[in-house]
């Protein structure tokens, strides 16, 4: 069982379903409203836990109803929440509009931006015990970089999902064991807007896995050779959280080797879009195994 430490965001997702996305200045009637636990960090933690990993999370929530509810949800998933701190700032939220299986999202970070390097130092023991450290960019970049430094200090691989997209400083790139962007995030992370993603894939040999939606994922070997894992065909209901499912699964299965970890992560991400909610469709290990057996 892999021990995965997730450093990242915890949000409440406020989800509206509509027939079409509103245009600027337009008001539409929605078809449905619901709240779902979310945040890239929490999503990836849940994904890894459901797939059999032993997961610990470091993050912050507000001293409000959403914060208490979200911590309870994580605990119910078997995630160690001892390092999730309370903040005077409100719990983060994501406003999500769904239409025709696609989504548009606005994130208000709230307490997530109150996560500091000192919070990570207090949880130094969690880094020492982890097999993989996984982070995203919904918490401050300085905090993410300190997480990478602590992972390096303890000799642990550090995975970074560079979302939301932002240019990464060289000091952080040097500490990353594995970068896991989508096509758009790849060019932004490497500060190469407009560059051909196929060329960029070779910039970090053996240290890059790029998701490509229904087309699957691409990853590089240590010698720079680019490998492709095809996607799995499913009927999409809600694509929210597919990338987070992929990242949680990748961390959970990395000990199986890159090829198998990417294959399983692709399958988990595909399964996740078949149900509503970022965490609602995340598969269990048994569900993933059954799906892969059906595909063979």
Write up this protein.
The chain is of the alpha/beta class. It has one domain: Ribokinase (UDP-N-acetylmuramoyl-L-alanine:D-glutamate ligase, 3-Layer(aba) Sandwich), CATH 3.40.1190. The protein has 11 helices and 13 strands. The strands form 3 sheets. A 6-stranded parallel beta sheet has the order 5-4-1-8-9-10, sandwiched between helices. The protein is globular. The protein starts with a strand and ends with a helix. 49% of the residues are buried.
Order of helix and strand elements from N to C terminus = EEEHEHEEEHHEHEHEHHEEEHHH
- Write down the overall mean pLDDT: 94
Helix content percent band: 25-40%
Strand content: 15-25%
Q: Which strand order spans the largest sheet, edge to edge or round the barrel? A: 5-4-1-8-9-10
**Number of domain modules:** 1
Describe the largest sheet.
Answer: 6 strands, parallel
Could you please say which CATH topology applies here? UDP-N-acetylmuramoyl-L-alanine:D-glutamate ligase
Instruction: Specify the overall morphology.
Output: globular
What is the CA-based Rg, rounded?
A: 18 Å
Could you give the distance between the termini? Answer: 24 Å
Output the CATH homologous superfamily.
Ribokinase
Q: How many strands in all?
A: 13
């Amino acid at each position: 069982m892999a021990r995965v430490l997730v450093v990242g965001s915890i949000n409440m997702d406020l989800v509206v379903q509509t027939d079409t996305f509103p245009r600027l200045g337009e008001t539409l009637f929605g078809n449905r409203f619901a709240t779902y636990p979310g945040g890239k960090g929490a999503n990836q933690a849940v994904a890894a836990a459901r797939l059999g990993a032993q997961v610990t999370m470091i993050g912050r929530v507000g001293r409000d109803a959403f914060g208490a509810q979200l911590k309870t949800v994580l605990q119910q998933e078997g995630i160690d929440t001892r390092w999730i701190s309370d903040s005077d700032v409100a719990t983060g939220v994501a406003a999500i509009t769904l239409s025709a299986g696609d989504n548009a999202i606005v994130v208000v970070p709230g307490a997530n931006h109150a996560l500091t390097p000192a919070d990570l130092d207090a949880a130094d023991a969690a880094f020492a015990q982890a097999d993989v450290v996984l982070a995203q960019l919904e918490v401050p970049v300085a905090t993410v970089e300190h997480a990478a430094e602590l992972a390096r200090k303890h000799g642990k691989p550090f995975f970074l999902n560079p979302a939301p997209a932002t240019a990464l400083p060289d000091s952080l790139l040097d500490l990353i064991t594995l970068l896991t962007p989508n096509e758009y995030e790849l060019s932004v992370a490497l500060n190469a807007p407009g560059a051909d993603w196929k060329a960029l894939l070779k910039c970090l040999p053996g240290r890059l896995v790029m998701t490509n939606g229904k087309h699957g994922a691409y990853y590089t070997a240590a010698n720079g050779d680019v490998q492709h894992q095809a996607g799995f065909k499913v009927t999409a209901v809600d694509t929210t959280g597919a990338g987070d499912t992929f990242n949680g699964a990748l961390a959970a299965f990395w000990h199986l080797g890159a090829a198998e970890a990417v294959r399983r992560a692709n399958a988990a991400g595909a399964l996740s879009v078949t149900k509503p909610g970022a965490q609602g469709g995340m598969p269990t290990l048994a569900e993933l195994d059954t799906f892969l057996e059906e595909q063979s």
